Amino acid sequence: MTYETEIENWRAARLAALTAEDGWLNLTDRVDIAPGRMTVGSADDNDLVLSAGPARLGVLELDGDGTSRFDAGEGVQTLKPVPDAPPRLKVGDLLIEVTQVEGQYALRVRDAASPARTSFPGIESYPLDPAWRIKADWIELDTPKSLGIDMVTGVETSVELTHVARFSHDGAQIELLPTHWKSGKPMFVIRDRTAGRETYGASRFLIGEMAGDKVVLDFNKAFNPPCAFTEFAVCPLPPRQNIIGFEIRAGEKKPADH
């Protein structure tokens, strides 16, 4: 398979994930919740009032440890965890999830019937540039380091760093911090000089690919965070070290409505 085909396949998979039932285009609600029992639906007299779905969707129970159950009138069902995602349950056309950020739980709702999934115009990307596929040194820290990460909501979370990725660009040494992990792969939250003008202003995400003692940073696969598509997502901002002082004209550009 050629590199061009690899990128074409990656972009097709990325679009399919965005427009999927559990993609980021069809979120309708995100409501903070506390442990307890609460009625859920679009009618105003519910404990949790949604902007989509029936007047009486059902009853949500949340335990102090985050375990959650839902009764839509056909018996209590436990929300089930899935890889790289919070526990969820399909109720009619709605996909409900219970998320947690720094101890604050929230009910997040997706509408599988949302027209946003079928009307999405796609994502504009820069032309493919193989020069932005970089093999960086994967350097393990002597001891893990705790780092505070700001979220778009103003909340600060804490992550543990174990490695840095180091490479050279125009004679300068660059080190990027992998602050998160997705499916066992390091994820970098970055911002460069194109931010706000050509790319999404807050950040882009990049998943590293391990290659022995190196990590491949393919900026042609840099992609927009969920917050570029919905106000109901909670995304991390880049740490200071991942704010890059030059343009990276590769990967996804900002959505058309930004």
**Strand portion:** 35-45%
* Tertiary shape: globular
Work out the count of structural domains. Answer: 2
Briefly note the structural class of the backbone.
mainly beta
Helix content: under 10%
The number of strands is 18
* Alpha-carbon Rg, integer: 20 Å
Compute the separation of the termini in Å.
Answer: 34 Å
What is the count of DSSP helices, taking H or I runs of 4+ residues? 2
The low-pLDDT segments are: none
Structure in words:
- It is built from 2 helices and 18 strands.
- With 258 residues, it is mainly beta.
- It has 2 domains: 100 residues, Tumour Suppressor Smad4, CATH 2.60.200; 120 residues, no CATH class.
- It has a 5-stranded antiparallel sheet, with no helix packed on it.
Q: Which labels suit this protein?
A:
258 residues, mainly beta, Tumour Suppressor Smad4, 2 domains, 5-stranded mixed beta sheet, 44% strand, globular
SSE arrangement:
Elements: H1 3-18, E1 27-33, E2 36-41, E3 48-49, E4 58-62, E5 68-71, E6 76-78, E7 80-82, E8 85-91, E9 94-101, E10 104-111, H2 116-119, E11 133-150, E12 156-169, E13 172-176, E14 178-182, E15 185-190, E16 204-207, E17 209-211, E18 214-218
Please sum up the structure shown.
With about 260 residues, the chain is mainly β. The protein has helices spanning about 5-20, 115-120; strands at about 25-35, 35-40, 50, 60, 70, 75-80, 80, 85-90, 95-100, 105-110, 135-150, 155-170, 170-175, 180, 185-190, 205, 210, 215-220.
